[in-house]
Amino acid sequence: MFHWKLASVATALLLVAAGSAATRADTPQVAITYIIDHPAIDATRKGIIDELAESGYKEEETLKLHVQSAQGNMPTQLQIAREFAGLGADLLVGISTPSAQALQSAAGDIPVLFSAVTDPVGAKLVASLEAPGGSITGVSDRQPFGPTLKLIKALVPDVKTVGVIYNAGEANSVSQVEALTKELATHGLEIAESTAAQTAMVADAALSLADRADVILIPTDSTVVAAVESVVNVGRKAKVPVFASDTDSVERGALAALGFDYYKLGRLTGQMAVRVLQGESPASIPVATLKTQDLYLNRSAAAAMGVRLSEELLASATKVVD
C-alpha cells in the first residue's frame, strides 16, 4: 500500500506539472521595448501594463511579459527587436519611434503596437492614421503647437525667438521641428535649432541656445527628454525659460508644459493591446491619440527663470509643482 500511495502521489504531481506546463504554453506573451528610460516613457510602460492587468492579462499569472530598454543605443534596440521577434510572442509593443521602427522591421507577421510616436505616417509605420494596413497600429502623442505658443507668449510677452533641441536622426523629432517652424511663423516668431544625437550632447546643445533664444521648447524627443535636467540647468543660469511638451518634464524642472499625461497614453495603448490579444487585426484599428492636454506649472522654475505665474493661471493648472 505504501508503494501504491507513492505512485499515486507521483502521478498526481506529474499531472499537475503537465497541467501547469499546458497553462504556460497557452499563456499569451507580450514583449515591450523602448529606446531609453525617462519618466514619460516609464509612465507609458506602466499604463500599458496596468491596463493589461485590469483587463485580465496579469504578469506571471495570465500573461508572460518581456520588457527591455535599449538604453539609448539603436544597435541594441535592433538586437532587442530581433530577439523579441524570435520569442513567438502574441504581440510586440514599441514605445517611441525608433523602437516601433525596429520592431516593425523584425516582426514579420507578429502584430505590433506603437506608443508615444508623434508622426507614425512620416515614420512609415502606417499607411494612414485611419487605415494603418499591415500588422501595426498604435497611439500617437502628436500635439498641436498653437496652444503651447500662446502659453509661451502669455508668460514671456517679449519673446521673439524660440529655441528647440532635438535629435536630427529621429524621424519623430524632425517632423515636430518642421511643424513647429510653420506654427511659429503664424505667431510672428522665429526658431533657433540645436541638435543632439546622444543624451550626453544635450547640455552643450542647450548652452548653444542660451544667447540665441528667448525661451527653449523641448519637443517629445526621447534623447532630449532623457536629459531634461541639463536643459533646465542652462535655463536657470541663463534666465532662459524652459518649456516642455510632456508633463513629466515639469516635475523635473521645466517651467511649464501643456501636454499629454503619458500614463493615460499608456492606458490607451493597453486598451488597444487587449483588442489585438483578443483577435482583432491591427490593420483595422485606427491610430489613436488622447483628446485633452494638461497644464503643468513649476513655481520654483518660474522664479529661477524670471517668469511670473499669475494666480489665475495657477488656478487653471492640472498640477502645480513647488
TrEMBL record:
UniProt key word Signal:
yes
Pfam families the UniProt entry points to: ABC_sub_bind
Q: Which residues form the signal peptide?
A: 1-21
Listed A to Z, the keywords are: Signal
Checking PANTHER family in the record gives: ABC TRANSPORTER, SUBSTRATE-BINDING LIPOPROTEIN (PTHR35271:SF1), ABC TRANSPORTER, SUBSTRATE-BINDING LIPOPROTEIN-RELATED (PTHR35271)
Protein name as catalogued: ABC transporter substrate-binding protein
Q: Which organism is it from?
A: Stappia taiwanensis
